[in-house]
Amino acid sequence: MSSIPRPRGRYRWLWIYLLGAMAVSSLLLAIGVYNLVTLTSEARVLKRTLLASDGFRGSLKVQGTVGPILLGGARTVLRFLPDVPAEVREGLAAMKSASVGVYKLDTLPSAEMRNEVFAAADAAMERSGWVRIVSVSERHQRVVVYAPANDDDSDQVRLCVAVCDQKQLVVVSGRADAEKLGEFAQRRIPRVL
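Now predict its structure.
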């Protein structure tokens, strides 16, 4: 019977370091992939609350999160693409992270059902430290925007948005650089005198 030779002396530590580095790299890769295919905590609370109702049952179309590293990579790639509009470059420059989930609803929710479900979402988001700052409703559409109740970071803007349009639900959460976002908005929104 042959046995596997055991590393000796200084090579033994090299193998231990190599295996440790591989384990840490694998763990970091797994965490990165998990973060890429899941939603942020606030978007997850909003999604779960909205899809918990019988009238709002739905199936996942796509969801994911991009953080500063992927957004930085996207900004770098866009520098080499000549046909990208300036608005895209400026908007991407302001973004720090974004989380998006798109869901197909099984049925078209009634206006009463949307009101009930979004009232439950307001309560759930408030328990999570978020308050509704905008709510717009028209026929089969509803847009609701939440912001942190007490966000002391004036350098960043954090928002969580839910859009229900016909039989589609979109949940978005994001962080942006407040100064760059303000400059972007100032250049893009026409001045009213």
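Helices lie at 10-37, 41-51, 68-79, 86-94, 111-127, 178-188.
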